[in-house]
Design brief:
This protein is of the alpha+beta class. The protein is about 30% helix and about 20% strand.
Length: about 800
């Protein structure tokens, strides 16, 4: 590889790092109380045990995956509960889990949702599209059963109690229902919920397992379940993310569910800055009644007797297509959303002023936490999960995780009255490939619903010296304006939100947003996909389009990247050929350039004129070889952005799904997990030496080819300065290897193919004449006294010079 090519690489990476540096420079929620277990043997009982908190603690101890608040629930097939009046006494409302939708790809639903009546919130949301699957869990997926140890007559009995079954899961398809007790998986006996989790971790997708379970007083029964890959979860308990990263879940870990609601103000009483709720108002930790329920909607109710208020929350999910639909990569059918309606009724005989607080999604994916890269829109460091917000007549804003972690009001809050705070279009949490966004369903986008919009850190303030602040769990918080509710029987406060929860695919997110005056045009969520500055974004979109077209033909993104590389290098062949010939001519002129430099050591002006005259004489332009480099720079950066952002490349294998290595072209190839013996400063993925928990081989091959090109095509040094420069460039290759180590394997594949193309291309071009460096340094110029034209005549001249003169 010639010196200019290496210089180009250094320049490219310098610009890349500078661009990244410019992009990233510049009332925590309370932990939920422990859940109480239901009466195990009486499914109709609404009475809680006095020792329920202890039972819940045991359940959490037995099942580290179960989030706080996930206790035994009615099964998904339970009959809808009809609204009753008067409401059930609040102290008698049991904890329940309910489900909406399905994770069966052919059910017509895009998602399966698990909800809890503890705070009337969303515990888990799984996508049904088989294209979007979990990339971090390689075990078989039976379904999230929220299992706890099966209780008996004052003692534990063998088995794991199933508390919820989402329709469409392998467990549901095998006939498992809520309140069943699983006693074995294959030949492995299940005595506790922890045994069930351990047994499932040993399974593999696409394999069958035999389950033995008990239902009520009936005899044990065996069924066969066909396991599959775990679906991608847009929201799930945060403790599971810690366990995936190998971290210990602390005691009293704050893990609230998504979309919690409480009252910000009642009359003159307002929530103080250090309080979670108003005194006497217990909406986020209390159990709400379920007054309506089926597979498409559920309505929760909570009556505040002392405040004379009734609060209702309704979640609605609709099918995206009839049964039998097929959701391929080109499908753009909407359905990655559900509706949330909040209704506040006045039960008093006088007017009451109220304002509510609505929190957003939590527990979004931390996928790519050790290698992922996301581009920020404004100054401030972005993280794995950031707040995304946009107001009317304003640019979208991304509030980075590090900014949210600090919780400085001026950075995370948007406060004002209608003249100061523009109407909100949408707000939510943005992850690498997934977003969950709340879209207020307003009649006009200019309606002002909110007094304050802010980003909220969940949990205590992290220590930047110890904790990775980019991984904090965060949510958005919407605080409504004050509304005056008329006396009992008057119009209630009713506001609805469309919740988008799905992949950031352009053809999908373009269909979500605020409509403009009933027109087709929308303030859509397309701005969620951000490639950076326009010059890089344009090339990235073009590269993405071409890549998708090639994939539609060959059916493999690895092969599509190879073809894209060949197309790019083929189109640039005339320029790269000119660059190579220009480099050959430069090597031929090196001796003359050296002579000029020696002749005019102290006169820079004469040296420059002499060099320019030499270049004109040989029709050589020193910048002629740089054109290809500068053309490749936007292509390189554009492809880099495309591979790191495009969700289509996520989970796309280089070879096939059956080969574990390089099974995700948007991530490093991850040949071997070395986290068991490598030090933490390497596996921790922070800093230059934070390489992550895996040995990646493609970056090593990439840098090895760079070094090979340098050795093959770099001309021999003509002086000590040139030799030192070449040594420095060899050392820089090590630095480049560290930079390349965590980039997407698809990008490494591009560079490998491009390097092989460059080697073959140079081999087909004429080679420069070989010159001895020492001879060139001492060879006299054309105007010197030498009359010899070859080595033989030179020797004869030297011999004659030694003879004595007669």
């Amino acid at each position: 590889m010639e010196r200019r090519f290496v210089t180009f690489l250094l320049l490219a990476f310098g610009i890349l790092m500078l661009n990244q540096a410019l992009n990233v420079w510049f009332n925590p929620l309370p932990p939920p109380q422990a859940a109480a277990d239901r009466e195990p043997d009486d499914q109709e009982s609404d009475v809680q045990d006095d020792d329920a908190p202890d039972a819940a603690a045991k359940a959490e101890e037995a099942d580290p995956h179960a989030p706080a608040g996930e206790d035994p629930a009615d099964g998904p097939d339970a009959e809808p509960i009809v609204a009753a009046a008067p409401p059930v006494p609040l102290q008698l409302v049991p904890l329940q889990l309910v489900t909406l939708g399905s994770v069966d790809a052919e059910s017509g639903y895009r998602m399966g949702i698990t909800l809890t009546n503890r705070g009337a919130a969303v515990v888990r949301l799984e996508l049904s599209n088989p294209q979007f699957r979990d990339t971090e869990d390689a075990s078989g997926y039976l379904g999230h059963l929220a299992a706890t140890d099966a209780p008996g007559d004052g003692a534990l009995v063998d088995g794991a109690l199933v508390n919820v079954v989402v329709p469409g899961t392998p467990a549901a398809q095998a006939g498992i229902m809520a309140d069943d007790v699983i006693t074995s998986i294959g030949v492995t006996a299940i005595s506790t919920a922890a045994d069930l989790l351990d047994a499932l971790r040993q399974t593999k997708p696409h394999r069958s397992v035999e389950l033995t379970y008990r239902r009520g007083q009936a005899l044990p029964k065996s069924v066969t379940a066909q396991l599959r890959r775990r679906p991608l979860e847009v929201m799930r308990p945060e403790r599971e993310h810690l366990e995936i990263r190998g971290e210990t879940v602390p005691q009293n870990f704050p893990d609230p569910a998504s979309f919690l609601t409480t009252l910000e103000q009642i009359g003159e009483q307002k929530i103080s800055d250090d309080a979670a709720e108003l005194k006497g108002v217990d909406l986020t930790l209390a159990n709400w009644e379920i007054i309506e329920q089926d597979e498409t909607h559920v309505t929760f109710r909570r009556v505040l007797s002392a405040q004379k208020l009734e609060v209702l929350k309704t979640y609605r999910l609709t099918k995206a297509a009839p049964p039998g639909w097929q959701d391929g990569p080109a499908s753009a059918t909407p359905g990655y959303d559900f509706d949330l309606e909040i209704e506040i009724r006045n039960l008093a005989d006088v007017q009451i002023d109220v304002a509510y607080r609505q929190d957003g999604p939590t527990g979004l994916p931390t996928e790519g936490w050790w290698y992922g890269y996301k581009i920020g829109r404004d100054w401030g460091g972005v993280g794995v999960r950031d707040m995304f917000v946009q107001f009317v007549n304003a640019e979208p804003k991304l509030i980075g995780a590090s900014t949210i972690a600090e919780q400085e009001k001026e950075d995370v809050e948007f406060i004002g009255v209608p003249l100061l705070l523009p109407p909100l279009l949408y707000a939510g949490i943005d992850a690498k490939y997934i977003s969950a966004v709340m879209i207020p369903c307003k009649a006009e986008i200019t309606e002002q619903w909110f007094e304050k919009v802010k980003a909220v850190r969940i949990g205590p303030e992290p220590d930047p010296k110890v904790d990775n602040v980019t991984l904090i769990n965060s949510t958005c918080r919407l605080i409504s304006r004050v509304h005056t509710l008329e006396p009992a029987g008057g119009e209630p406060l009713r506001q609805s939100y469309q919740i988008f929860a799905g992949p950031k695919r352009s053809d999908i997110i373009s269909q979500y947003g605020q409509p403009v005056a009933q027109a087709v045009k929308r303030h859509s969520l397309e701005s969620l996909v951000y490639y950076g500055w326009p010059i890089w974004a344009g090339v990235a979109k073009l590269m993405t389009l071409i890549l998708h077209m090639l994939y539609s033909v060959v059916g493999n993104y690895g092969l599509a990247i190879v073809l894209l590389t060949v197309m790019v290098r083929g189109c640039m062949f005339p320029l790269s050929k000119k660059q190579a010939l220009n480099m050959i001519k430069m090597q031929e002129l090196q001796p003359e350039i050296k002579k000029i430099a020696d002749k005019y050591k102290k006169d820079m002006e004469k040296r420059t004129r002499a060099q320019q005259e030499l270049f004109r004489k040989h029709n050589y332009h020193p910048m002629g070889g740089c054109l290809v480099m500068f053309l490749q720079l936007p292509i390189f950066l554009g492809l880099y952005r495309a591979l790191m952002i495009d969700i289509e490349l996520r989970d796309a294998p280089l070879i096939s799904e059956s080969v574990p290595w390089c099974s995700n072209l948007a991530a490093p190839d991850m040949l071997y997990d070395w986290s068991g013996f490598m030090p933490d400063f390497i596996t921790g993925a922070t800093g230059l030496l934070g390489l992550g928990p895996y040995l990646n081989v493609l970056p090593l091959v990439t840098v090895g080819l760079f070094i090979l090109q340098q050795k093959m095509f770099m001309p021999p040094p003509t002086d000590d300065q040139t030799a030192m420069q070449q040594k420095i460039m060899k050392y820089m290759m090590v630095f480049m290897g560290l930079i390349f180590y965590k980039v997407a394997s698809g990008l490494c594949l591009y560079f490998i193919v491009s390097s092989l193309w460059g080697i073959c291309e140079r081999k087909l071009l004429p080679k420069p004449p070989k010159r001895d460096a020492a001879a060139q340094a001492t060879k006299p110029s054309a105007s010197g006294s030498s009359n010899s034209s070859n080595g033989h005549s030179g020797k004869k001249s030297a011999k004659r010079a030694k003879q004595p003169r007669k």
